Every structure is written in C-alpha cells, then in structure tokens.
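I am writing to request your help with a piece of structural work I have in hand. A protein sequence and the structure tokens that stand for its backbone fold form the material at issue. Please examine both parts with care and let me know of anything in them that strikes you as inconsistent. The record follows directly beneath this note.
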Amino acid sequence: MSRVSFNCTMQEGQIGEELRAKLAVALQQITEDVLGESPDDVPVTFSNIPSGFGFRGGEPSTTSLVRGSIVGGVTQEVREDLMRRICDRWMEISGCTVDELVVSARDV
C-alpha cells in the first residue's frame, strides 16, 4: 500500500483530461516537496459525480474534492502546508475559486 495517495472527485465535465494530468503531476510534486515521497509512489485517481447529481445551494455544484491519505505522524504545520499548497496549485491550474475546492488529508 502506498504511503500517500489522492482521490479527486469533481462534477462531470468540470475538468478535462488534460487538466487532470497536470493536476496529478502537481499533487505528486507537492507531496515530494512537503513529505519527501517519490512522485512515482503517489497514486492519483479521479472520479466524476454525474451531471444532475451534485448541487450546492440549489444550483449545480462546481466543487472539486481532493481527498488525500498521507503517512501518519506528520505535524499539524506540515499537514497545513501540504493542503495549502494543494489548494493554491489546484486553483492555479483549474481556474476554480477557493469556494469551489475542498482539500483534506487523513492519516493512513
């Protein structure tokens, strides 16, 4: 089992394959920078919420979820740094706003 992995969930049609590839590389690079994990050892998967199945405030949702599973025992400061970098890079690549992204990092 990998020590670090990410599952990214978004609304169908929200983020295309080209951007997903860039986002996966960014997640792997950030994990290497912050946690020292080899990018080759960090699996990133994507799943879609079908159109018409995700809503926020009565409108179709544009929110993406990045759920990380990371090696246990990291400090709160390191965890926050990891999630902050993920948020910043995801917004930069995808063009979403801070209100359209939820990032979490639970211990494996």
User: Anything to note?
Assistant: The CA atoms of residues 2 and 41 lie 6 Å apart. DSSP finds two helices and six strands in the chain.
